[in-house]
Amino acid sequence: MSWTHHIHSRRRALTTATGLAAAALLPPAAAHGTASAQGPALATAAAFANPVIWQDFADIDVIRVGDTFYASASTMHYSPGAPILRSYDLVNWEIAGHSVPVLDFGAKYDLNGARGYVRGIWASSLAYRPSNRTFYWLGQIDFARTYVYTATAAEGPWSRLTTISTPYYDAGLLVDSDDTLYVAYGNTTISVAQLSPDGRNQVRTQQVFTTPPSIGTLEGSRFYKINGQYYIFLTRPANGQYILRSSSGPFGPYTMRQVLLDLPGPIAGGGVPHQGGLVQTQGGAWYYLAFVDAYPGGRMPALAPVTWTADGWPVVQLANGAWGTSYPAPAVPPPPRQVTPMTGVDTFDGTVLKPRWEWNHNPDNTRWSVNNGLTLRTATVTDDLYGARNTLTHRIQGPTSTATVQLDHTEMRNGDRAGLALLRDSSAWIGVKRDGTGTRVSMVDGLTMDTDWNTTGTGTEAASAAVSGSRVWLRASADIRPGTGRLGTFSYSTDGTTFTRLGPAFSLGNDWRFFMGYRFALFHHATQALGGAVRFTRFELTTP
User: Fold this and answer.
1) Could you say which DSSP state residue 381 is in?
2) pLDDT class of 494 with cuts at 50, 70, 90
3) Best exposed site among 163, 220, 403, 431 by fewest CB in 10 Å?
4) Which of 398, 448, 427, 440 is nearest to 507 (CA)?
5) What is the distance between the alpha carbons of residues 403 and 346, in angstroms, rounded to a whole number?
6) Which phi and psi (to 5°) does residue 208 adopt?
């Protein structure tokens, strides 16, 4: 299947009648790896609000190991890839680490003569294998082959276990009750593969289901064994969810049931909750962690309780005929600690980046460092931010948020550009320009790419102001509520207290085809010669 076909099948506009599975309240026993034995006394808050994470985490897979929930997400061209989220209650999440330490899948992921935009880490799978106490991440890259990474702790270190020649598109990894590893995968035609006991090779693969033409596309497999039955949870992009069930084994035959279709979501102006996965709490309750298309911000995780019919089919619990904007919080044991917020201040303390950060493509590791501040040395001579290496990104918190950075520009050289961007396929930035005539702070918009992700505009300076001294504070604010005409604004300060607006408001693009939502981005690149450096000493992400 061609790259173009995959792009458009994933988010083809779909219009059919609304429908939901009928409900009954009979939850089955836990799936393997999520033991249902009652643990410590359960605690619950009054309610939670959706989205549970108002940041861009799509194609979620979710599991529980003991009293801890973990989720994985797509990152495409951002590195490190496949973040691992961690929670103790399914509502409050932190970023624990990344399953794919570097995108070493070809030169295009280095932004070194080629580019890998909208490639890389697509929908993948996260699993835990109790027999060897190991986490597994599995995903295909570039429709060429499948990669498997493992770690004994979610925060890592993660290492590559193997490469498999079959590309398991939109895979779901199952650790069966007898410890056998199976993978469900495919687009419209759904197959199941069995892996070798060590997880390094494919033993067999077999087509198990063909999507009826009346439904169209099914993909995004998640694979479960519940009460001795095998289930493959599938999405109809981007407005439906279906499930397959087999009582005869992992290779079927399977029967199908619709779970949801055209269901109103919990984010005003956003899409239908879909894809994602099912997970069971320690007390036996089931939940569905899906995502909602909510551009320009991206795809936001939303949580809903699930019950089961008497004959073993899952049913999403609704609020007034829709996915609820709030539900009673899951009853779980008290958390051992509070999770690390995804907002707030980072002074780049220590010598490693925190897992909230991801590079645009792989960085040149000789050109940056962290040591109680982030130093970016120019790694590319270009006038094109989309082609510049070592741009460091951070997800934007919705519905609106502001990023402020403190930048020491003492060591910039003539022709250097450094600053803070709102980065996507249509971008703008505020930053420092060092030229022979002096140093000025500038707001630049009109950075654009076409749908093949080639640069069509390198930007135009919309406003500028002369600055003196060695440091400046830069600020970008973004409204990422779903819809058109959402705005970003830029300002600067020379004392960190009084900020001056610079340039016009920037209209954020909300086309889904880039998949990833807008991000804040720290950058420094040369337009004349390498050798310059800047130092970011503080980053702060705040909400109103």
Assistant:
1) B
2) very high
3) 163
4) 427
5) 11
6) -120, -15
**What six digits make up the tokens of 33?**
């790896």
pLDDT at site 37: 29
pLDDT over 80 at 16, yes or no: no
pLDDT, position 46: 86
Residue 468 CB neighbours (<10 A): 8
Q: Report the C-alpha gap between 184 and 173 in whole angstroms.
A: 7
Residues 255/311, Cβ–Cβ less than 8 Å? no
Query: Listing from the earlier edge strand, what are the strands of the sheet with 159-164?
Result: 125-129, 134-141, 145-151, 159-164
* Percentage, residues of the chain above pLDDT 70: 92
- List C-alpha distances in Å: 453 to 22, 425, 445: 44, 7, 17
Is the pLDDT assigned to residue 328 strictly greater than 70? yes
DSSP 85-123: EEESSSSSEEEEEEEESS--S-GGGGTSSS--TT-SB-S
Q: How far apart are the C-alpha atoms of 393 and 418, rounded to whole Å? A: 14
User: Is the bond into 273 cis (omega within 30 degrees of 0)?
Assistant: no
Structure tokens at 375: 């130093």
Predicted confidence (pLDDT) at residue 112 exceeds the cutoff of 50: yes
CA 115 to chain centre: 19
Indicate the pLDDT class of residue 436, thresholds 50, 70 and 90.
confident
Strands of the sheet with 455-466, listed across from one edge: 78-79, 357-360, 392-395, 519-525, 417-423, 426-435, 438-449, 455-466
User: Does the CA dihedral 274-276-281-286 come out positive or negative?
Assistant: positive
What's the residue count for the chain? 544
Write out pLDDT tens, residues 285-305.
Answer: 999 999 999 999 999 999 999
Residues sharing a CB contact under 8 Å with residue 132, sequence separation 6 or more, in sequence order: none
Nearest to 85 by CA among 95, 75, 76, 77: 95
Nearest to 340 by CA among 519, 157, 82, 87: 87
Return contacts of 441-448, CB within 8 angstroms, 24+ apart. 441/465, 441/467, 441/472, 441/474, 441/492, 441/502, 442/502, 443/490, 443/502, 443/503, 443/504, 445/503, 445/504, 445/506, 447/385, 447/386, 447/421
Dig out the tokens for 69 from the structure: 């929930």
Which residues touch 5 (CB under 8 Å, ≥6 apart)? none
Q: Which residues pair with 402 in a beta bridge?
A: 477, 542
Q: What is the pLDDT of residue 4?
A: 39
Give the count of beta carbons closer than 10 Å to the beta carbon of residue 411: 15
Q: DSSP string of 384-445?
A: -GGG-S--EEEEPPSSEEEEEEEEE-TT--TT-EEEEEEESSEEEEEEEEEETTEEEEEEEE
DSSP assignment letter at 5: H
Q: What is the pLDDT of residues 173-219, one digit of tens each?
A: 999 999 999 999 999 999 999 999 999 999 999 999 999 999 999 99
